[in-house]
User: Fold this.
Amino acid sequence: MQPMSGHPNIIIYLFLFFSAFFLVIVLTPFTMTLAKKIGAMDYPEARKIHATPIPRLGGLAIAVSIILTIVLFSAENPYLREGLPLASAMLPGLLIILAVGVYDDVRNASALLKLVSQVVAAGLAVGLGIRFQLASNPLAVQARDYFDLGTLSIPFTMLWIVGLTNAMNLIDGLDGLATGIAMFASIALFLISMQQSAGLVTYFYATIAGATLAFLRFSRFPASVFLGDCGATFLGFLLACLSVLGTQKSYTLAALFIPLIVFGVPIFDASVTLIRRYLNQGEMMHADRGHIHHRLLSSGLTQRQAVIILYGVSIVLGIIAFAFTALLDEYAAVVLGIIGLLGGVDGERTQCLRNSAAPNGKRIQVSPGSPRATRRMKPCSVLFAWILLGTTLHAQPAESLKGFHPLVAALHVHSRYSDGEYEVADLGLQAHARKIDVLGLTDSFLTRVRYGVGPFKKLVSKTMDRRSVMELGLDQYLDSVEDTQKRFDDVVIVPGLEVAPYYYWKGSWPSNLELHDFDRHMLVFGVADREALRNLPVIENATWANTPHQWIQAAGPVLVVLMGLLVAAIALAAGKSRAYLMLSGLILTAGFVWAYDAFPFGQLSDPYSGKQDVHAFQRLIDYVAAHGGLSYWSYPEARYPDIQTSGARMVSRGQPEILGLTDRYEGFEGIYGDTITITKPGNLWDQILVEYIQNSRKTWPSVITGIDFHLFKPNNGWAQLDQGITILFTKEKTLGAVLEAMKLGRGYATVQRDPAHRVGLENFGLTTEGSAAISGETLNTAGDVDFMTTVDWMPGDRLASSAIANIKLVRDGELLEEYHSTLPAFIKRHENLKAGLHYYRIIVEYAGTQILSNPVFGEVRAH
Assistant:
């Protein structure tokens, strides 16, 4: 199985990691010297553990190394350069945090100044687009209930950023503790972001991991330099912003499910510290020795042992977070709630503050905890657990909950095996460069028309053809696809064919001859048998294997040949003249010519009938299905200008009604570069879907986007590979999984105005009683269902915009409701359906972008 999405080469991540690593190794000694010169030293005192002065400015080396590494690599690497505009939203806040942190390390800034600077920095980040959007409802019966945070996203995101910034600072109490926790968190989030194709943040996590690992060389016990406030708050602020960017697609109250686990140690310590200080006479800004690491020391552990234990907890939490990315949200909520309950500071007759021993054996007197504090810690721990449960009732998109991941597919692409401009290998390279997951090739199978006259219309005819697969070689075409697939394993290449099943003539040559239906094309995917492809039953490809034989057509030429042989035999037996032999030769020639013209002694379709033959199209559909393939109608409403050539006129007109006249095909191109009416509410597509739910049809057709790509053209979205796309939901990135998603209609069609800022459809489906169905699936229910969907920017593509999305919700062929909203747009409806089969689909139009979902079905059991 290939990875779910094509990532930049792992070498890039290794370069970022080691570049930051070596920069920190080089710069840290300079920051130590600088700290000593300017007096940025941490001197021993009663609350502190170390016994000698230690330089504080070590975090400055980490900050410079991270920023320098990202900037330098972005100049050379296009993947990283694309994400810099989004990363720049963090920069103003980071500089403020770093500047105040350095000032604090030198001058000991007041707690109020530090808090104000953190709020300002967080406000700048939020104002520049770093914010949470959707949240889960902690009081909901089902975990998949969401609401739009709206303006609440501003204070909520600021609370998270300021909170994690302080949490990382508060945990920085033992040698190497905060640095190690940041390192393990960045490694865990790197792996998670790799799995979820989170883009930009993956680069940052790799860089942070390298920088923090290098700094442990200096900060582990016994430390020669401390992170200082500049380092702890810088890492806290940076990781907080990255966690927001990396989870903007997770619909949670705070979108913090994964970060809450990964940063479990500092968050838990900071939360308990605030509660303890509040209960201890409200001394919120008063430093103490009640942190989790102080408690470990007071239990008799050494610094090294305490740090190793907290490292171990961080590693376990990282593993849990990574594992939970593939588990249902309800389990995560329960586990986090248990963690909150067990982690309450409600030990037996607990004292919130107590006398503890320093490592050097001296007693350090600390105020004992009051009975009031002890009595109230249990309710507080329960409250903390409830907060965890409520804020982490994680609701991943329904597609992810069912184990599906989105693949970006470019379908209906031509190479030089027909009328495209590029070799198959070149198209594979272009798909790889544009992060296209699926490339659907559809070179023309056989592009040929023939007009014949007289009794021998094949022999006495004029043909017109263009470059096609059958002309250049079917085996060569498929071999080229296989070779290209081996070169680009991050792109699933689907070999397909564009087929003209039938055409017919009207009028007569040379005055008013017209060619009809030659533009009624179908796309064929998934037929693996080469012989089956070679014998596709389409006009001009009549073979012995695909043609129903009509032996009466063989009788005439056979009789003529026999007659010729008889004349020759009589002439030879009777010793007749040469004239009789010549006569027999002419008769035999006529017989063989007739046999050639009549071969294969049957007819797929009659192009001279003067009318459309629907059976020709249905025959191809059935043949493809019988050989395990998929068939799609191409451009059913396309209107091309009539073409006059060689005394004939090719007439082109949209004939969408053919969709209703045929059955058992997989779908049709519902989005392409032309005016489309059949997908509007209540029109032909809905009429066909209604026939299906009323059992008048055997199958229902899905929609895909058809780009009919031949070559790149500037300023033309249809002449690109990454604007007209189909999103397919699969569990694996394999050819079989892609074909399965296409067959079931599990996905949606879209054309994007801007491929750098794409809008997507997520969480589209029906839910009831813990079960869910997404597009292409059917949900069995007793009657009550919840329909929901979210329209939002795709991961890493978010753009600040006030444009309004127009969203139409269609149920059973009728426009149910129309919505107008900025992004993200969240829709939820509770429905009580009557017995029978029903379907829902949506249409989205947003600033030049269009999305057309495939339907999701709900089948209500009769009572």
